[in-house]
Design goal:
352 residues, alpha/beta, eight-stranded mixed β-sheet, 16 helices, 8 strands, 43% helix, binds fe (ii) ion
Length: 352
């Protein structure tokens, strides 16, 4: 009798287990942890949503503006994937041994070799150019030509730029060093500093605002801001007041800034991290990236965003396809500290 009761209790238990809702039995959604120096969650969020929908995983992100490499050093396994606006930071992180090596045919076939780390620790997920914005009402494109021309006396008191110590300018000035050599690079940086209209302050868009307000006639900024300002009602006048010139088109070309993605050395989630990276390298992922950030894709099969393809038209750049002065990231990363030191030494950011 007792055995019979135990038997039926066991059967009931089994039935209860089978009958319970599936959700109670499936494992909780996997979590992909991301760290990024992209400050605006709005830019990345649609892409993260798209990946969540296709993978069923949940993506959680830590956002930070500066100090990404130091954060990776102090908390190396806090995230599975690291996304940055400044690919040289991932080159530095890779050199410090903070990134894992991945092996992916999808990535190596989708992203051209020049946009991949030769050591397979990160790849460039998009890029933009750092160009000259000029006042349409006061400057003719024919008056402009190159970065070095901005050091000429004719631009005295007419240039606006964000602080020289900001990552974007460190990346630009580091490429001056790598491409032109130290002496010429320093002369250009010092020449620009001598020609500034005001103390370097604010972000890139505020330099376009400076042009709109008549405080300066030219500024150094990234290409995508023109498209972003044009779609932000209160900034549209800043976009309307300015046009973009790709410098050095008759010479070595315009410098680009790359954004990138890499995998940390955190364990246990590397398959999911790679799944995300492969999606970002795919045509679909790249189209989402280009739409979200208004950058150029390293994939030749991804079209240039229509708002970017018109930039440079005044100088005859066809469909946004500008000549690029390509500096490998490894060559730039080595310049970063030297540039930071030089910018401080000449008082680039001092009050004016
Ligand atoms: Fe930016």
């Amino acid at each position: 009798m007792r055995n019979k009761l135990l038997f039926w209790a066991w059967v009931l238990g089994l039935v209860a287990t089978w009958a319970s809702p599936a959700s109670a039995q499936t494992a909780p959604a996997r979590e992909l942890r991301l760290i990024t120096d992209r400050t605006d969650q709005g830019v990345l969020r649609p892409m993260l949503d798209a990946f969540e929908a296709r993978s069923g995983a949940k993506v959680t992100a830590v956002f930070m503006d500066q100090g990404l490499v130091a954060r990776l050093e102090s908390r190396p396994t806090e995230a599975d994937v690291v996304i940055t606006k400044d690919a040289e930071l991932l080159e530095i992180a890779a050199q410090k041994g903070l990134l894992a090596t991945f092996n992916s045919k999808t990535i190596s076939e989708g992203i051209p070799a020049s946009f991949r780390d030769p050591g397979n620790r990160y790849f460039v997920d998009a890029y933009r150019a750092r160009v000259i914005y000029y006042a349409k009402a006061r400057v003719k494109p024919s008056e402009l030509s190159s970065y070095e021309d901005l050091a000429a006396p004719k631009w005295k008191g007419r240039i606006c730029i964000r602080p020289g110590g900001h990552d974007y300018n460190l990346a630009l000035f580091g490429q001056f060093m790598a491409s032109y050599g130290e002496a010429k690079a320093k002369a250009i940086i010092q020449g620009i500093a001598a020609n500034l209209a005001r103390t370097p302050k604010g972000n890139d868009r505020e330099q376009a605002k400076g042009i709109f307000e008549g405080k300066c006639d030219v500024a150094l900024m990234n290409t995508y801001y023109h498209a972003m300002m044009a779609y932000t009602p209160e900034q549209k006048p800043w976009a309307d007041a300015t046009a973009v010139l790709y410098p050095n088109q008759a010479g070595k070309g315009t410098f680009i800034m790359r954004s990138a993605i890499g995998m940390t050395k955190a364990q246990g989630n590397q398959d999911l991290a790679l799944q995300f990276m492969e999606w970002l390298a795919s045509q679909e992922g790249q189209e989402a990236m280009v739409r979200a950030t208004r950058q150029f894709s390293p994939r030749p099969d991804v079209e240039i965003h229509p708002l970017l393809s018109t930039l440079g038209a005044e100088q005859g750049v066809p469909g946004g396809r500008f000549k690029m002065d390509f500096v490998p990231l490894a060559a730039m990363a080595g310049q970063r500290e030297a540039v930071l030191k030089y910018v401080a030494e000449i008082g680039f950011d001092k009050e004016r």
